[in-house]
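Hello Y.,

Per our agreement to keep a running log of every chain we model this quarter, I'm adding this entry. I've kept the format consistent with earlier entries: sequence first, then predicted structure.
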Amino acid sequence: MNVIVRYILRELGIIFLIGFLALTCLLLIVGIVQVVIDRHIPLAHTWQLIPFVFAEMSAISLPVTLLLAVTIFFSRMSGNNEVVALKALGIPPRTFLMPAYVIAFIVSLLGVAINEISVTWGPKGINAVLYQNAENIFISQLQKNRHFETDDKQIAIMVKGVDAQRRLIEPTIMLKRESATIEAQSARITIDFNANMLTITLEDFRVTSGFGRAVGGSRELTFPLSEIVPDTKRERPSNLSLHRINREMQRTTELIEQQRRIIAAHRTFAAGLGSVDAWMTPQIAEAKRQIRQLQSRYDRLAVEPPRRWATGFCCFFFVWLGAPLAIWMRKSDFFSSFFACFLPILVLYYPLLMFGLSQAKNGTLPPMSVWIANAVIGLIGFWFLRQVSRY
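Predicted structure for the entry above:
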């Protein structure tokens, strides 16, 4: 058995590592190209994105390459009648499948850690690159397109060109929120990272707005840097680390209780005055709205820990299904085995995962419903394990 275990561990490990590196590098190229196109990052700064995009792509490639390694090895093993030989020696399939399950368990723990890194460290790192190179990115886009517009369409900047000193030539700035258009002969852009502000210094400017027209010499326009590049200070529940989620849940619960006390105080005051209309004051309506928003945030926070553990341990359940299914098919063609294993994952696992995740975020189902997909794959894998153990 020691020889068999070493053989299985060596072959699975080699196939898994080669597949993981190859697929992750391929996804890394795709991910960097997507970030460069979406965020308009100059090619000179793409190398800074590699570690952050690599972390995000690793979370995708890890379960797929582990399933691929298992199906390649066990389909070849079954197609060459090695499984039949082991059974003839009195060794049940559960015994030589155990090393694969151990590897899958260890990789699943690694997957949980990679998921934690990919959703916390990865996006922050990408945004940090954007902030550090915000001025270069901004100037580069104006040089290339002669136009820049924020994501919310509230600020638009058009220029006739950018000279060698990085000065904007005849810029036109449209501020839709203020219904104003500002034109200038030239302008310079500076960024203050400490103040988190972008400043545009205009020379010989003209302002046209609903209040009339004004002409002046020089003027400075300041904008929060978060309006130009993504705001790293605004963190969604999906980007919080696990050790911070509990604190945020406790804080959100305290805020909900605070709003409920506000409602109770207003209703007590209304009851004391004998006023029925005062039971639905604007303050009470606002407090109820705040409670709904806070409860939605709490539900999203509560689902994050089980979601990360469930998506990490999909590696184990993929192997739990893939290994006995590859043996059961008895084909040395691993492509057939891999797609036969991947089909129920595409048809069942990901739709069930999305269903459980969306329902848990809405508060319709408990947070542990994100494990439904793993449970279904586990039941199917158990049925195939019984089949290969019986015959």
